[in-house]
Amino acid sequence: MPEVLRWANAEREVRAWLIPRLSVGSAGVVTETTTTVPEKYVKVERAGGRGDGPLDKLVQIEVAVHARTRGDMWALVGEVETAFAALATNGTPGMYVDEVEETFAFAADPMPSQDVRRAIATYTLTVRPR
Q1: Alpha-carbon distance 38 to 82, whole Å?
Q2: pLDDT of 53-94, one tens digit each?
Q3: pTM to 2 decimals?
């Protein structure tokens, strides 16, 4: 009987990768938001993907950076971009990451509240289970 592949939770793996690489710490890298959020934070969500062969998948990850000022937002965007650039050569404990593509680069996204600035990007990861 062939072994069944176990795919890692991509949101959880990317969040764990980002935490030690961003200045906002673990409370500032989330997959869900609550009513109480830090002044600056990064939200990681799986946005789709597809199978790319018998052993790998393309996983799309949407990343939203939130901050009180545009300066803080763009500084945090720079940290996220640097962390994603290093992901392909390192992978995570739960998945090999063969390739990281910036599918949609960070762009400012208007928020209903002027107290929060947000920039959103989408990355496509080519992953394999460990």
Answers
A1: 22
A2: 778 889 999 999 999 999 999 999 999 999 999 999 899 999
A3: 0.91
d(CA 42, CA 82): 14
User: 82 and 21 in contact (C-beta within 8 Å)?
Assistant: yes
Are residues 121 and 62 in contact, defined by beta-carbon separation less than 8 angstroms?
A: yes
pLDDT computed for residue 2 by the predictor: 61
Order of strands, edge to edge, in the sheet holding 95-109?
A: 29-30, 41-51, 57-67, 117-129, 95-109
Other C-beta atoms closer than 10 Å to the C-beta of 19 total: 16
DSSP 16: H
Could you tell me if 31 and 43 are in contact, meaning their C-beta atoms sit under 8 angstroms apart? yes
Tokens representing 51 are: 């199978």
Looking at residue 34, its pLDDT comes to 74
